[in-house]
Amino acid sequence: MPIIHHRIKELRAAVKPYRSQQRVALVPTMGNLHDGHLELVRLAKQHADIVIVSIFVNPTQFGVGEDFDSYPRTLDDDVAKLATVEADYVFAPSIDEMYPVLPPPTLIRAGTITDQLCGQSRPGHFDGVGIVVSKLFNIIQPDIAIFGQKDYQQLAIIKQLVRDLSYPIDIVTAPIVRAVDGLALSSRNQYLSSAERKIAPVLHQELQCLAQQFVDRKHIEQGSDILIAEAGKRITAAGFVIDYLEVKTDQLESLLNNDTAESQTEAQDLIILVAAALGRARLLDNQLVTVNQ
Ligand code: AMP
């Protein structure tokens, strides 16, 4: 079983002896763990000797009217799952422990990268992510930290944070883990009714369909906007309310290309990103596309 610490001081004391000789990995989460999170831990174990999983539903990244109060909190189950993948420590602080003053007067601003995608529809969200991740980096001082590609804009913002604040931490990217029908695993999937859960894989199917078309540069030149609009219509017809459905080649991608050598795969030319609500659940997904030259 992993050892659980709720206090910063205790966790620091526990990790200190390892620091000089062994590699320490951090896997930050908000808990209610699923196989996607466990895959992050497995990846962490490949890169490090000691794996610390943080479980903290961070109030500063939730906006007014969002699901902070109802977000599932399942610490005992989470710890049991983490035992199966041999995580070493769980850091599960209280809100007071993390934020002596709430909201914290010190801000981390990610800048113009948040003018788009989730940053646009969730103002202040990435400032909250920035401060909590900075705090976790300072508390744990890991050698590496693992983040999922599922939250692609978050990943890009973390890489920017590491670059701009000179954190000596390698960021490793974990691929998206999906249910057998293609739906990206997410703690928020449990907000779906059984009827909505049957519809939900449409998001991934439409991304795959677009990706197949975009592999051929000719299709992009002939008008990616039309293809995106058609896919958007099908997603809406299935019952989703789309927040965004976009293809990017810009700043996000160039930030991602600063990946560590270990996590770097082949050249990735485009990324298709979607956020859409289905009932009470806001679902995210994305698909990388390597375009034929
Ligand atoms: P969360 O607990 O939702 O804040 O997510 C914690 C970490 O797990 C983030 O780095 C996410 O990108 C990652 N993650 C969430 N869902 C998945 C998934 N289906 N596959 C891979 N990583 C994921």
Q: Determine the structural class based on helices, strands and strand pairing.
A: alpha/beta
Bound molecules: adenosine monophosphate
Strand order of the largest sheet: 1-4-3-2-5-6
Amino-to-carboxy terminus distance:
50 Å
Number of strands: 9
Tell me which oligomeric state these chains represent.
Answer: single chain
In N-to-C order, the SSE pattern is: EHEHEHEHHHEHEHHHHEHEE
CATH superfamily of the largest domain: HUPs
Binned, the helix content reads 25-40%
Q: What's the alpha carbon Rg, rounded to whole Å? A: 19 Å
CATH topology of the largest domain: Rossmann fold
> What's the tally of helices?
12
CATH architecture assignment of the largest domain: 3-Layer(aba) Sandwich
Largest sheet data: 6 strands, parallel
Strand content: 15-25%
Quote the average pLDDT: 93
**How does the overall form come out from the CA principal axes?**
globular
Could you say how many structural domains there are in total?
2
Low-confidence stretches: 258-267
Can you identify the CATH class of the largest domain? Answer: Alpha Beta
